[in-house]
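User: Could you check the structure of this?
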Amino acid sequence: MQSDGSRTITIITGGTTAGTVKWTATGDKLTATDSKADGYGISGYVTTDPYLIADTAGHASPYTATAHRDLTENRSYTFWACIGSNSAGLYCSNVYSVTS
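Assistant: Sure, the predicted structure tokens are below.
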């Protein structure tokens, strides 16, 4: 985690980067980037109410999806990334702490 509460998860498949999910604390922005044309989408999640979700499913790569919401400052949330498809299901990262 960066000093401002931001964090990036890089998703690797077959030895290459399939995508990234980034939480940017300044601006309360979640970005999912699918950089590999492999048939899988990249999604990111932050536990706000309701959840903040950025999802690239249904788009040809390269593609970036962004979600943002004005959140209460200096509050902790959980954050994770997933890769998958309707036929393969989702495979998700560990859950990490981030702040707004």
